[in-house]
Structures are given as structure tokens and as C-alpha cells.
Amino acid sequence: MKYADEFRDKAIGLGLARAIRSEADPQRPYRFMEFCGGHTHAISRYGLEDMLPKNVRMIHGPGCPVCVLPAGRIDMAIRLAERPEVILCVYGDLMRVPGSQGASLLKAKARGADVRMVYSTVDAIRIAEESPEHEIVFFAIGFETTTPPTAVMIRHAEKKQLENFSVFCNHVLTPPAMQKILESPDIRSIGRAEIDGFVGPAHVSIVIGTGPYEVFAEEFGKSVVISGFEPLDMMQAILMLVRQVNEHRSEVENQYSRAVTRGGNPRAKEEVCDIFELRDAFEWRGLGLVPHSGLKLKQTYARFDAEICFSMSELRVADNPACECGAILRGVKKPVDCELFGTVCTPETPMGSCMVSSEGACAAHWTYGRFRDRQRKRAS
Amino acid sequence: MKAHRRKVDIKHGCVDLSHGSGGRAMSQLISGLFHEAFGNEWLARGNDQSAFDVGAGRMVMTIDGYVVSPLFFPGGNIGSLAVHGTVNDIAMAGARPLYLSASFIIEEGFRFSDLKMIADSMGQAAQSAGVHIITGDTKVVERGKADGLFISTAGVGLVPEGFDFSAENARVGDRVLISGTLGDHGVAIMSKRQNLAFETEIVSDSVALHDLVARMVAAGGHGIRLMRDPTRGGLAATLNEIAQQSELGFSLQQEAIPVKPGVAAACELLGLDPLNVANEGKLVAIVSPDVAGAVLAAMRAHPLGRDAADIGEAVPDDHHFVQMATSFGGARIVDWLSGEQLPRIC
């Protein structure tokens, strides 16, 4: 497959693996957090862990929008979908995300709620045009990558004067979450987890550029390498991070230069700024309330804001106390450290959010990597 | 006096509730459309059932329901699929498929012209598979109670003397053979889904595999432990199922698994793994290592096994994992699919 196979070349990959092995100092650990779920998925799917020396450890970060969505927001969506006039349009991986008391959109749909899986915002607009007697709500979710399409969709709806269309906005921002992780007591005070550097987001950075990460290099002294999602991208980014650590550098480097620039995509940023504004704070599963980390529609577009149109009240739900998703999302624990992992919590019956999306740390480890647990057990 | 038999207006007409009522309209539909398409001596006798001779040896029986959406897709339609799917389930026992039954649940308003096209495809598929559709049933439900048409087909076949394909026959060291490229059917269906449509030249691989199976059995004899057709859930589901049932594990080589570039690209786009995507004209065989070469050669000599490949082996594993060396150099599990990748794929 053109433009994909080139970035999955085994010989080059093995060469990069050799370089990482020879350059990583065996006397010290290297702990890198890949922020994005896309990176987590690639690491697991291509088995990259097997190609890294033992002292280079990847910590799976919170960059899976489905995983960090708090159960309360799912409950709010379910309540909305249960209204007889509403058709709720969602991306497929949201369907099984657990809300409170085992509820999910999939179960709500089975009970009669009109929940439609869509692949793009265009589908939601089409459904709104085809069903004027219904209220169409698009469950908008995602980081900076998926926010511009939602903005464009709202523009379309405005242009087409759609009166039966609104957005349940759950868009969140990457840099505030990275900051929250670095400032969390686990990492700052107790030192339960150390992060030497970040594999920086791929698609998010196409939109926002590399500039917003400079604060992490300058103020937090962390190495950052923006990386593409292909396995060669990741191996090269890890090598670049090893080199930064070895040379005591903390910089923002751009491995994904074929797509990412320092300034990002000005048009996309402009669209987002026109339509959205910051929330004071937004709740993230695992991270709690993170200041200025979520977006909502500006007052000018309030008529497209489902939270206003349907007077939705904010629901807060406590996570299962045994679930370690929070610590896993902060990189403090590994999936296997959770008592629920692989026992009551599997991709078929997810208890925590990390088990739901294939980009979640637990689901990725369960689906692709759990055979290593047995190898480790044997080794110990 | 013989009653006048009104011809079914195939070009302009559509199914209404009277066509399922047991009255004259139903009789006309059956004789004018289904008998015409499936024409054989058993149906012609018009009984509520059909009798047939039972040969020596053991018989296999299977049934499958077809609810695919859309009904017409590149490379086939629900009719041909309903024959191929059931014929293949029989063939996977190493059996020769003989007779099918077919049940139609039709939504009021379904066009005769579409129904005829589907019935004709079934007739042709049955003929080329060497099976006869010898009994059937027609029901009509109100508009909105079925999405156009659902078909169920049951079938019987004859197992050659001494053969008993089953997962518990698998042994450590057995080879895993597949008959060709993976994911073609699923991608062909997805490319036509209303909310997904994308351009691709991929057509469904829907086809009857009994002839390929016969050649394999001739080449491998009792060295063939079992065969399965990796339909819903793809190769991943089939191998996990066999691993559980045989209490073994499997070790695969990703580089050896054939996937068409168009299928790989579509899967990339949709975030799917070709190993989880449905096939309707492929089989996986677990084969003793001493006959694997001969069976693979026989597969490759057959038009339906041109791209056949040896993709891995059975290994001892208490956890019954299906593991794979990725083409990039790492290792991973090939797991069951979680949740529903795509409803109504067959």
C-alpha cells in the first residue's frame, strides 16, 4: 500500500531498533510517555515493545478521547438519546463506553433510543436534512484534530439554516492535559512516576503545530518529539528522545515533518476560534477537572449547542473505586497493576474507559500484548 | 375446469401480503418465480417436503440465516450468498453438498424484479455448486417489519467414509493454510453501505468451495485435521475458536498472510484489521505437517486457491493465544473482535 508500506519497512525498523539499543545507556531508565492513543495502538499493533531494550519503557498517556470522557457525559448523552424527538449521531467507538451502573449508548439503542453510528460529520448533517421532524444531535468528541470538522459542520448547518441540528460538545485540548500530568502529585511530589520525555501527538500537531509544546521543554525541562503514527515514525522518535536525554537536551523536535509545522494549520485554528471558546474547566476521566482544557460553543452559536437547546444538566458520576484507569492514564500504573484487568474488565465487558477504545492502554494491552504478561511471569 | 393462472408481473409488480397468505397469489409466486429459478424434479412435485435417497456413510446438516445489507453488492447478492454460505458450511466437513432448503421472509412492497434476480442467482449458484434446492417456504411481513428480504438456507451433504474433521484433531506442529486473500467480502459490502460508500474495485469473494475442498481431501487425506470458513469475525475469530476447541495456540507470520492492496487500504481508512473482516469464499485448514506441502500445492493448482498460503503453525499454549510475528518485526496477539465491527455483513 503506497504511502503506508514505506513507513512500515522491517529492515529500516530493525536498524532503528539497533541504534536505540546501542545508544541507550544501560545504566539508566528511559521513560517516555506517548500521549496519543494512536501511538499506543501502533506500539501494540506492531509489537514495538519487543524491539526496545528493557530500560526504554513506554508509558501510555491519556490521549484517547473516548477513554478520558467521564461517565457523567455518557449519562448525559444517554438521557438525550432517550428523548423521543432526538436522533443522536455518534462515532462507533462511543457506543460501548460505560456510563454509570453499566449503562451505555449501545444498551440505550437496544431499548429503543435512536442512536446512529456515523463515520463523519457529513453523515450527521445528511440525517438532519432527511429527518426534519427529528432533532439531530451530533456527539462531538476528540482532541484538536476532530474539532475543525465539527466547526465546519456547524458552519454548514448555519448556511443550510438547519433548525433541527445541534452539537453535544466534548472537545478537549492536549497541552492542558499534558501540563496536568506533569503537575500531578504522583509525578511532581511523590515521584511514583517519572517521565523523561513525550512522544508528541501526530494529528493534533498538524492542527496546532509544535509551538504549544515548547512550554514543556522550556519550563518543565522535558524532551518532546512530535511523531507520526507509523511504526518507523515511532521508532525514529524514540531514538530522537534517547539522544535528547543522553545529551541533556530538552527541546521540541519534529519527527513528523512531512505533516507538521511549527505554526500548524492556521485555517483550521481560525475556524475553531471563530466557533468555540474555552470552558473554565472540563472533567477528564483519570485526571479530574482540568482548567481550560475543554471547548464549548460561543454564545453566537448557542442555537447549535445541545447543552443549551435541551437544558442539559451536568452529571457527575464517580468511577468504580477498584478501577485504576485514572492512575493508568497518568502513567503511574500499568494495566496489569489493576485488579479488574482481564478479570471482570475485558473489551467485551469494559468497566473502565481504558478498556473501551482500541486506543485505550488496557484494551491495546489486552488485545495485542497480554501474552507478554505470561513471559514476564515465567521470567520472574 | 382448470383455474386461470395469472402470470406474476415481474417487471412492474411487487410483493404484497397476499403473496404470503397461502392462497393463489402465493402459489403463483412460488411456481412463477422460485420454481422457474430453481427448477428441479423435487420442487416440481409440489409437496410440503422432498424425499431423497440417503447414500452410505454419514451425513452433515447445517443452517444459516442471511440478512446482508445491502442485498446487492459487488460480486454477488443475498441469493448467491445464501447458497455459497451454506454449501461452504457443509464442505468444511470434507462433505459433498447435496440438497438445500430455502426460506424467504419478504417485506411487503419488495419488487418482483429484485426477487427474481435474487432467485435466479440462487438457482445459478446452486447449479454450479452441484446442489439442488428441493424444498422451501415463503412468508410475507408488513412493511417495516423486515428490511426487504431475509433468507435462511439449510443443507445436507455426504461425508466420505472415514473422515471426521474436527478441532480436537489438531496437534502441535500442524500447519495453518488459508486459501487466499482475506477481507474481500467485508470490504465489498462496506464500500456500498449508505453512510460509508467509498470507491474500490474489490468484489466479494462469495463462492462455493466444495470443489477446492475435494481436491484438498484428495491430496491430504486424513492428514487434514479440520477446515473452517472464516466468515464473520474473519480469520482472527476462526483461529481463536479453533485454538479454544483444540486447547492449542497458534503462531502466525503476518508476512505470509495475503491481503489485497485495495482491502488493506480500505481497512486502513476505516480503522479495521483485515484479519477481523468477513470472507465468504475462503477457508482455513489445519493440516498435519507431512501433508501440508501436498495440500498447499493442490490448493494453488485450483482457481479458488491460487493465492493459498501457509501462514503459521499450531503450538502448545495453555492460554490458547493466537500470536503473530508482525511484518514490522515485533509480536502481538491476534484476538477476537470486540463488539460489532459491522452488523449484517452476511
From TrEMBL, chain A:
Q: Which Gene3D superfamilies match?
A: 6.10.20.100, HypD, alpha/beta domain 1
Keywords carried by this UniProt record: Iron, Metal-binding
Instruction: Answer whether the UniProt record assigns the keyword Ubl conjugation to this protein.
Output: no
**Residues in the signal sequence:** none
* UniProt xrefs under InterPro entries: Hyd_form_HypD (IPR002780), HypD_1 (IPR042243), HypD_2_sf (IPR042244)
Source organism's superkingdom? Bacteria
The UniProt entry, under PANTHER family, shows: HYDROGENASE MATURATION FACTOR HYPD, HYDROGENASE PROTEIN ASSEMBLY PROTEIN HYPD
Give the similarity note: Belongs to the HypD family.
Protein name per Swiss-Prot or TrEMBL: Hydrogenase maturation factor
From TrEMBL, chain B:
Q: Which family does it belong to?
A: Belongs to the HypE family.
Q: Which residues form the PurM-like C-terminal domain?
A: 171-323
Name of the protein in its database record? Hydrogenase expression/formation protein HypE
The record ties this protein, via PANTHER family, to: CARBAMOYL DEHYDRATASE HYPE (PTHR30303:SF0), HYDROGENASE ISOENZYMES FORMATION PROTEIN HYPE (PTHR30303)
Q: Which SUPFAM superfamilies match?
A: PurM C-terminal domain-like, PurM N-terminal domain-like
Task: Tell me the ranges covered by the PurM-like N-terminal domain, including all copies.
Answer: 47-159
